[in-house]
Design goal:
- The complex is a heterodimer of chains A (about 850) and B (about 180).
- With about 850 residues, chain A is mainly α.
- Chain A has 24 helices and four strands.
- In chain A, the strands form two sheets. Chain A has a two-stranded antiparallel ribbon with strand order 1-2.
- Chain A is globular, with a radius of gyration of 27 Å.
- Chain B has about 180 residues and is of the alpha+beta class.
- Chain B has two domains: about 60 residues; about 110 residues, Sandwich (Immunoglobulin-like), CATH 2.60.40.
- The radius of gyration of chain B is 24 Å and the shape is elongated.
- Classes of the chains: A mainly alpha (about 850), B alpha+beta (about 180).
- Chains A and B meet through helix 3, helix 9, helix 10, helix 11 and helix 12 of A and helix 1, helix 3, helix 4, strand 6 and strand 8 of B.
- Chain B: Subunits I and II form the functional core of the enzyme complex. Electrons originating in cytochrome c are transferred via heme a and Cu(A) to the binuclear center formed by heme a3 and Cu(B).
């Protein structure tokens, strides 16, 4: 087949339908761009809010916006920038870029990408509409209780935050699962882990951190919403709760979050700097060690946000040391980059301007970070404008500048055109000067005693000039961003056509035509060297000519390769799903669930839950095969089985990643229970003992576990697993009902945190028994539909994994219930 | 700390500029030396020194059992005001100005009636949060008589910026009278 004919044939298979069909898009090319464009829309909204803040603070005793409105604005500025801009922005970049860097045709779960996008869009929209209606959250972006509790924030505002952000977080969790599985299983043949481009390593570590970083926040939001909506006291000190539990859960997420945002940006720098230095990255292995070290350390220093809450000084010293140590892996990366430039032959272009901007701003933010890690200094600077300056230096320096560099670096990939240089350079200087003018001065206002989050200040405290100059700087920076926006439009309209690989980069994403076709690569390459040092110009031509794997259309199937996790040997053909409206419908049903909770129309909630479950049952219908295909040809004289016929497939790994998320959520809940049992005030009075229902539920859950295992074993022997699965479904439903009964007979769970904890622990286990029962039912339906055979057994494996999990979670449940019945650990 | 940070900032940016503008000057540096020198040998001694200094300084600021006895003053926060009481001064009255004896350490016990607040007199030292259900203590000392501004440092709702107070430090002899106590 000719290159053009091949392109047309593959394009027909992978294309997204036009018109309304665009809403059925599942392709990572489209969704990655949608994520990034939407993130930029939210960045603009967050920027406008920042301008309002600076307008208000430009002069003392300002009456421009009153405190009520100001509180909504600064809360929304933080919330929008962190949750609706930064996280989705790098998710979009990773969704678009990773398959290209790794040599795959799409991500592992294209429909999940789409579902994540709709959750992000709908969740973000809820927040913005609430703001326009005047009901935006107003308790600060970290929502400290009891200010955010029902007593002190009786309106809907805090619910908008808790529910809207949790809705958006679905997209973070789905993206994390998908990225981990894609990086581990979907690379070009021959790309072992040690040959992976460095951005792949950065994203693997980031996505791994997201799997265990987000659950504490999601749990905290669920608990706070339960307290607000149903009066279950977890944070109320008058009923055995503790407001500090919220701070621990929030920062247990919130600190790793900073590194979750920084690492993808650092990955971008590690990808770009070698291109402009014209030599391979220095210290590839040292950088991998550094980012893994950073990931570990980042989970051990959340308390440095809480140095002034009254924790003993020696405990603070431990977290202080951990916070300071993070400077070491950061320094390793900084010097690896400088060393790469110093030992290369650097050339300059617009992305490098922003790389230099990154160095200036981020190094400054890193140094103030070390200062803030020191307890005595922190107790002076905490919650002052010094911290505001520091966090903007770190986040703008460590994320926005690298993202602007990435924008200019990869824009030719989106547009197929070169930059128009006229505007790019003044835009950079406006942003750099404006940024430093705004935020450098805030170090001084902070040291002069200006606390954050005040809507106005008297004029005799010496803060007037500094604030005015900060505001001027803010407006300069905004002009810079506006110029960047115009510059992007100019490039789309007037940029010169760029050929393939305009920067002479050495990574795979440039070995394809630009704008990228929906299938990325006509042929999937064989990789024999480190994949960030390839001869792209030669490789691009070979691939376009069809020399590589899977360089043919087959049976209208969207095919890509799966590889062995470590060695990169191809071990399966992954058959990806076609465009579908199911993600949209499922996200709409999910939105109904959240809106029902938000407006307290509780009958909608169970209806929407059932709708979501039914829709997810429909997701698997187009997947799988009714007969065993055996080994299928992949080109280059090789043949491997389809993904449904191997054990080590992406669905299985996604289940394990999902369990990692879920187990972290449960661990956070158990941490919360232990924390309150040990520390919270008001646990003196005797409380009722637990009932025996959880013990019975543990026994029935173990029975389900045995049945799911029996089903898998008999299926492997060729005996139908259907009866076992049906039985497992019934036992799972029984377990759920027993646990729900256990919840129902807890007397007055709203009276004390001890009882409320028992209530949610039982609820968590009940939900998981129900999930196990539904998966057994689903596997039974798949058996009936003929999708299961002794080799096509993924449905049974997934069922077994989640049934095991539903049983295992009941063991700590029983232990914690006994501890709570004894009145806690006093 | 400030000058140290300046030196490090200039060092990193200087190296970056040289590497971009005159790479030949740095071409002699072996690649791994960048990572070992800049990433390990430079930061580790600095961080260890800083941590030890911070720990020693932090310990000195702590109220401790065996040390000098400090007078106890209670600060009660609520939305959006501060009230101060002096349990050790017989006959003293509640006040909305914090009266302190100059030149003596004072233990300020901070509590709250509603949400989280934070007690801060920027010129006298660090801050301490007022957490519902808990008592937190901070030891402060005003060296000279005079008025010092105090504020709430933790965002506490729409009256947050109005929640300031004055700390008035008196000569030791005048202090009991200032709080209405019997001399």
């Amino acid at each position: 087949m000719s290159p053009i004919g091949l392109h047309k044939a593959l394009n027909k298979i992978w294309a997204t339908p036009p018109g309304w069909g665009r809403l059925s898009a599942v392709n990572h090319n489209i969704l990655g761009k949608r994520f990034m464009v939407l993130a930029l829309v939210f960045f603009t909204i967050g920027g406008v809010l920042a301008m309002l803040i600076r307008a208000q603070l430009a002069t003392p005793n300002s009456a421009f916006i009153g405190p009520e409105l100001y509180n909504q604005i600064f809360t929304m500025h933080g919330t929008v920038m962190m949750f609706l801009f930064a996280i989705p922005m790098f998710e979009g970049l990773a969704i678009y870029m990773l398959p290209k860097l790794l040599g795959a045709r799409d991500l592992a779960f294209p429909r999940l990408t789409a579902y994540g996008f709709w959750c992000y869009l709908f969740g973000g929209t809820i927040l913005i509409i609430a703001m326009l209606a005047g009901y935006a959250p107003n308790a600060g972006w970290f929502m400290y209780t009891p200010l955010s509790s029902g007593t002190y924030s009786p309106g809907i505002n805090a619910d908008v935050w808790l529910l809207g952000i949790t809705f958006v977080e679905i997209s973070a969790v789905t993206a994390a699962v998908e990225l981990v599985v894609t990086i581990l299983k979907m690379r070009a043949p021959g790309m072992s882990l040690t040959r992976m481009p460095i951005f792949g390593w950065y994203m693997l570590v980031t996505a791994g951190m997201m799997l265990i970083g987000f659950p504490p926040l999601i749990l905290g939001s669920i608990l706070l919403e339960l307290e607000r909506a149903f009066d279950l006291p977890f944070f109320d000190p008058t009923r055995g709760g503790d407001p500090l539990l919220w701070q621990h859960l929030f920062w247990l997420f919130g600190h790793p979050e900073v590194y979750i945002i920084f690492l993808p940006a650092a990955g971008v720098l590690s990808t770009m700097i070698p291109t402009f230095a014209r030599r391979p990255l220095l210290g590839y292995n040292a950088i991998i060690v550094a980012i893994v070290a950073m990931a570990f350390l980042s989970f051990g220093l959340w308390v440095h946000h809480m140095f002034t809450v009254g924790i003993p000084h020696l405990a603070l010293a431990f977290f202080s040391a951990a916070s300071a140590l993070v400077a070491i892996p950061t320094a390793v990366q900084i010097f690896a980059w400088i060393g790469t430039l110093a030992s290369g032959r650097p050339k300059f272009d617009i992305p490098m301007l922003y790389v230099v901007g990154f160095f200036i701003v981020f190094v400054c933010g890193g140094l103030t970070g070390v200062m803030l890690a020191m307890v005595p200094f922190n107790s002076q600077a905490h919650d002052s404008y010094f911290v505001v300056a520091h966090l903007h230096y770190v986040l703008v320096g460590g994320f926005v500048f690298p993202m602007l560099a990435a924008l200019y670096y990869w824009l030719p990939h989106f547009t197929g055109r070169r930059s128009v240089y006229g505007l790019s350079i003044p835009a950079f200087w406006l942003i750099l000067i404006g940024f430093n003018l705004t935020f450098f001065l805030m170090h001084l206002t902070g040291l002069m005693g200006m606390p954050r989050r005040i809507s106005t200040y008297p004029s005799n405290w010496g803060w007037d000039w500094l604030n005015l100059l900060s505001s001027v700087g803010g407006f300069l920076m905004t002009m810079g961003f506006a110029l960047v926006l115009i510059d992007i439009i100019m490039q789309f309209r007037f940029g010169r056509r760029a050929g393939r690989n305009p920067w002479k980069a050495r990574t795979l994403e440039w070995a394809m035509p630009t704008p990228a076709p929906p299938y990325n690569f006509v042929a999937i390459p064989e990789i024999n060297a480190r994949a960030d040092d390839l001869d792209i110009d030669a490789l691009g031509g070979e691939l376009a000519g069809g020399r590589g794997y899977l360089a043919f259309p087959r049976a209208d199937r969207q095919e890509t390769l799966g590889v062995d996790m470590m060695t990169g040997e191809p071990d399966q053909v992954i058959i990806l799903p076609q465009p579908s409206f199911l993600p949209l419908w499922t996200a709409l049903a999910t939105a109904a669930f959240f809106l029902g909770l938000l407006f307290k129309v509780y009958w909608i909630v169970p209806v929407a839950t059932v709708a979501v479950v039914i829709l997810f049952f429909l997701w698997t219908r187009p997947l799988g095969a009714r007969r065993n295909m055996g080994a299928i040809e992949i080109g280059q004289g090789r043949a491997v089985p389809a993904d449904g016929e191997v054990k080590d497939n992406v669905t299985y790994w996604a289940s394990l990643s999902g369990i990692a998320v879920d187990a972290t959520l449960y661990a956070s809940l158990l941490f919360g229970a232990l924390y309150l049992a040990v520390i919270a005030p008001g646990w003196a009075e005797p409380l009722p003992a637990t009932n025996w229902l959880p013990a019975i539920a543990l026994a029935t859950a173990i029975a389900s576990l045995a049945l799911a295992r029996r089903a898998e074993i008999s299926n492997a022997k060729g005996v139908s697993p259907a009866p076992m699965l049906l039985l497992a479904t019934c036992v799972g439903i029984a377990t759920t009902l027993i646990l729900v009964m256990g919840m129902a007979i807890i007397p007055h769970p709203t009276s004390h945190a001890n009882l409320a904890l028992r209530f949610v622990l039982l609820a968590y286990c009940a939900v998981h028994s129900a999930v196990a029962a539904l998966l057994a039912l689903h596997a039974w339906l798949r058996c009936r539909g003929g999708f299961v055979s002794s080799v096509r057994a993924t449905d049974l494996r997934v069922t077994r994994v989640w049934t095991d999990y539903a049983a295992i979670v009941q063991v700590p449940l029983w232990a914690v219930l006994l501890m709570l019945s004894g009145g806690g650990l006093r | 700390m400030f000058w140290g940070a300046c030196v490090l900032f200039l060092l990193v940016l200087g190296l970056l500029s040289v590497s971009l503008l005159r790479p030949a000057m740095l071409a002699a540096v072996k690649p791994m030396h960048w990572i070992i020198g800049g990433g390990l040998m430079m930061p580790i001694p600095i961080l260890v020194g800083l941590l030890i200094a911070a720990l020693v300084l932090g310990e000195q600021l702590l109220p401790r059992a065996g040390g000098a006895k400090a007078m106890r003053v209670e600060a009660h926060a609520s939305q959006w005001q501060w009230r101060f009481t002096y349990p050790e001064i017989a006959g003293s009255a509640e006040s909305d100005v914090l009266h302190l004896p100059a030149g003596e350490p004072v233990d300020i016990v901070v509590t709250t009636a509603d949400v989280i607040h934070s007690f801060w007199i920027p010129r006298l030292g660090g801050k301490i949060d007022a957490i519902p259900g808990r008592e937190n203590t901070i030891r402060l000392q005003a060296d000279k008589p005079g008025a010092y501004h105090g504020i709430c440092a933790e965002y506490c709702g729409p009256g947050h910026e109005t929640m300031s107070f004055v700390a008035q430090a008196h000569d030791g002899a005048d202090f009991p009278a200032a709080v209405g106590g019997r001399p």
